[in-house]
Amino acid sequence: MPLISLRNVTKSFPPARRGGSPVVAIDNVSLDIEPGEIYGVIGYSGAGKSTLVRLINALETTTSGEIVVDGQQVTGVPDRQLRKLRLDIGMIFQQFNLFNAKTVWNNVAYPLRIAGRSREDIEARVSELLEFVGLSDKASNYPEQLSGGQKQRVGIARALATSPKILLADEATSALDPETTHEVLGLLRRVNRELGITIVVITHEMDVVQSLATRVAVMDGGRIVEQGDVFDVFSNPQQAPSQRFVSTVVRGVPSPDEVAVLQERHSGRIVTFSFRDGDSSQASVFLDLAGAGIEFELIYGGINDIRGRAFGHLTLALVGPAPAIDSVLDAMRTRINVKELA
Ligand SMILES: Nc1ncnc2c1ncn2[C@@H]1O[C@H](COP(=O)(O)OP(=O)(O)O)[C@@H](O)[C@H]1O
Ligand SMILES: [Mg+2]
């Protein structure tokens, strides 16, 4: 049974101006997140990602549709029941949202005090959490004395205080430099593996999804336009928004600008062949082209690795009679992905 399940969820906000039309932030979204996975949600600013997480932890109510978290109905239940639900869900944010007037220790202790835990419980839990995130020596520091990465580690410790089953991370690394991002992503991976916590990662950065998530949903205009295993979406994105995101991190696919340069420099038809592990070998492409008497030149390419599975793209310039090229490309299309760029 999924841990988080959304069925035909829609959320619209009232029009910004009188007589305007309502803002549909989430448009008929269905989604299942399994226990123990790291699920990525990627989309540009305004796609509806933050609204989606706010619906999951019931900070917003749905306009229509159904949300179930850990077997518990989220939609249309009394507030008293939601407080219990929120103990099951921790959340971290882009701007960390720490209490600046509280020490690191007191930031992490805060949710435990709210939950009415005993002093001994709080002592034990906070020191365990600070140990886990590697900040035991910063317990009496204030947030302003910490680096961005350290602040987010406090945020993570605080989010985990009540031992939630789910951690929602909304752009949790977007304010961090690449090195600190890497360190925080490593910590999130440990949260998932060592504590078994299911993580939903909301981001506009595709490399975050690539290095962390097992599955991904691509959002655009409030809708999920594509979802699946990270390897599948990265190696063979189907929809235009997914293709744009994938092109920001995947090696071997020329951008439109690069295609224009390739076209200027090379005569012939420019075709990209995409391979995934398990596909027939790249050699067969060269053999088939040579066998059909087509001249070819390798002009662009790259190999990618996602958790030990490889995929890659090779772009060739082909010169030969059009019908011969068409027929050999058609034959290849039954085995591998072939895309004519120009
Ligand atoms: N409380 C709100 N009131 C009105 N419109 C909102 C509200 N929250 C979000 N929106 C609108 O919903 C859309 C999606 O916003 P959001 O979920 O924040 O996207 P993202 O997190 O992907 O950037 C945007 O058009 C935004 O302006
Ligand atoms: Mg957002």
Sheet with most strands: 6 strands, mixed
Level-2 CATH architecture of the largest domain:
3-Layer(aba) Sandwich
Per CATH, the superfamily of the largest domain is: P-loop containing nucleotide triphosphate hydrolases
Number of helices: 12
Regions with pLDDT < 50 over 5+ consecutive residues?
Answer: none
Strand order of the largest sheet: 6-7-8-3-9-10
Quaternary structure: single chain
| Strand runs, count | 14
> Structural class of the secondary elements?
alpha/beta
The end-to-end distance, rounded to whole angstroms, is 47 Å
Principal-axes shape call = elongated
Please bin the fraction of helical residues. Answer: 25-40%
Could you name the CATH topology of the largest domain?
A: Rossmann fold
CATH class of the largest domain: Alpha Beta
Order of helices and strands: EEEHEEHEHHHEHEHEEHHHEHEEHE
* Mean of pLDDT: 94
Bound small-molecule species:
adenosine-5'-diphosphate, magnesium ion
The share of residues in extended strands comes to 25-35%
Write up what this structure looks like.
By secondary structure, the chain is an alpha/beta fold. The protein contains twelve helices and 14 strands. The strands form three sheets. A six-stranded mixed sheet has the order 6-7-8-3-9-10, with helices on both faces. β12 and β13 (309-319) form a beta hairpin. α4 packs across α5. The model has no long low-confidence stretch (mean pLDDT 94). The protein binds adenosine-5'-diphosphate and magnesium ion. Magnesium ion binds at residues 49-50, 171.
